[in-house]
Specification:
This protein has 16 helices and no strands. The chain is an all-alpha fold and 339 residues long. It starts with 12 loop residues before the first helix and ends in a 5-residue tail after the last helix. 48% of the residues are buried.
């Protein structure tokens, strides 16, 4: 555990320049999905900086984002808090940099299923960005995409579509139609259209997402696995079963080699493969995969997370014995305590 209080009062300029170079290189590794290398460099950079240095806030924010990408949510939150405190003292709580970190916190809370807190932080960040960068900036698009994800998770699908289309337009203009972030946005749209049962639009977005993400980020990037999962989902709902299983299998292989088999995205994809197996009548295999997915999600997100609840319901649907166990647990929970 790093003892920040033991840092010297001032960071030598040479150390600061070196820390900045380390952060820049780590950011490249981060974007390429080379997470272990990125983490080592971010941590080394932090060790060279005073906690009150603005650069320290940037590095802490980046390391937190890396932790979040790997499903290490508890480690990410204190790093984001550290970044916010430093930025409030150096740039001010109305600055663009503060707003960007604030919407990163919102995305973290969304990942944890803390939707009310996520929305509060995202709307505050959007208001700050409206005053600093304006509504056509790519940071503004990032915040819109987070609000869209929150709305989708809470059932406000029309609002989610509006936010995502605005974010996509900004990103295509600012970062180019072939950029990785555009591919990721297209996958978000595909998932939304799948939830809305607008399957032809979903498939168009999903196929474009896979093509763009693979070209921009490479064949081993975890974002490609998410896009492959999104395409598999819409094809499964369209009963195009021949194409489905290879997509899930490829997505799982990418995730296993990039973020590991204990990551929530791995568990979600595993759960989707289980649903496919159940639809094909392979209930025993579906039950096995659901159990594995549920164990990963419970360990990483906690037993109350919406994804855990969803996966448990899916397991109940294919495993009568599990359904009886769940019913007993629910019934016991409802009984009044006897003093």
């Amino acid at each position: 555990m790093r003892m920040l209080s033991q840092k010297p009062e001032n960071c030598f300029p040479a150390n600061r320049r070196y820390a900045e170079s380390l952060n820049n290189l780590a950011s490249l590794y981060h974007a390429a999905g080379r997470y272990a290398e990125a983490e080592a460099l971010y941590r080394k950079a932090l060790d060279l900086l005073n906690p009150g240095d603005e650069l320290s806030a940037l590095v802490a924010n980046n390391l937190a984002a890396l932790d979040r990408a790997q499903g290490r949510y508890k480690e990410a939150e204190p790093l984001y808090r550290r970044a916010l405190e430093t930025l409030a003292a150096t740039r001010g709580a109305g600055s663009q940099q503060y707003a960007v970190t604030l919407y990163n916190v919102a995305e973290l809370y969304r990942s944890e299923g803390r939707f009310a807190e996520a929305e509060s932080n995202a709307r505050r960040a959007l208001s700050l960005l409206d005053e600093t960068t304006g509504p056509e900036d790519y940071y503004y698009a990032d915040c819109l995409a987070i609000l869209a994800a929150i709305d989708r998770a809470t059932g406000r699908l029309d609002e989610a579509e509006s936010y995502l289309l605005r974010a996509l337009a900004i990103r295509e203009t600012k970062q180019g139609p072939s950029s990785g972030v555009v591919g990721i946005t297209l996958n978000n749209l595909a998932e939304l259209y799948t939830a809305m049962r607008r399957y032809p639009e979903a498939e168009t977005c999903a196929r474009r997402s896979v093509a763009v993400v693979e070209k921009a980020l490479g064949p081993r990037h975890p974002a490609l696995a998410v896009s492959l999962n999104g395409l598999a989902q819409v094809l499964r709902f369209r009963s195009r079963y021949v194409e489905v299983e290879p997509l899930y299998t490829r997505a799982l292989a990418i995730l296993a080699n990039s973020v590991g088999e204990n990551h929530p995205d791995y568990a979600r994809t595993l759960g989707n493969l289980a649903a496919y197996d159940a639809e094909q009548g392979r209930r025993s295999e579906a039950s096995r995969l659901y159990r594995r997915s549920l164990a990963i999600l419970t360990a990483s997100l906690g037993p109350e997370h919406p994804d855990v609840v969803t996966q448990l319901a899916r397991l109940d649907s294919v495993d009568p014995a599990q359904r009886r166990r769940t019913a007993r647990i629910t019934d016991t929970a409802k009984r009044p305590e006897v003093n």
